[in-house]
Known about the structure:
With 203 residues, the chain is α+β, with helices and mostly antiparallel strands.
Amino acid sequence: xxxxxxxxxxxxxxxxxxxxxxxxxxxxxxxxxxxxxxxxxxxxxxxxxxxxxxxxxxxxxxxxxxxxxxxxxxxxxxxxxxxxxxxxxxxxxxxxxxxxxxxxxxxxxxxxxxxxxxxxxxxxxxxxxxxxxxxxxxxxxxxxxxxxxxxxxxxxxxxxxxxxxxxxxxxxxxxxxxxxxxxxxxxxxxxxxxxxxxxxxxx
Length: 203
């Protein structure tokens, strides 16, 4: 048997929407099991996300710190954001998030990893990119105004190997950050030659 995720869709007997908020929707589906039994499955419908591992020419990764209310913590994270612009290519959205959240842009882009962030309770899909040839945006080029949790997000450049150590030691918890940092470290073995192009389709 090939170890590769595959599309599969079991029959839904009925579906109930409990909450529709600005970003997410909470639903319960009555799902028909293979033996015919019908069971309820609660989950969150999410638009999806993108994230960026930005590496400079010294092998350092760019992290930012943001307050996350559901877990009541200040988390060190990758620049990231929602897939909330209709028709926008994912790598373009990732570049926009990198610029808005950090004031940087990158000249070279590849796909690092695709993941479902919490498939037992949400359909959120994330694509994490590797961005290199990173430079600061020219002064005045960005007019994005950071508000709320984004108003005070300190940035830190740390060596990729140190980021790996911190993730493995339980010092970095954000799932996109952990996945992206470890994927970038693994991909660095062959100089990132095996990575997919930035516009590679999602399977």
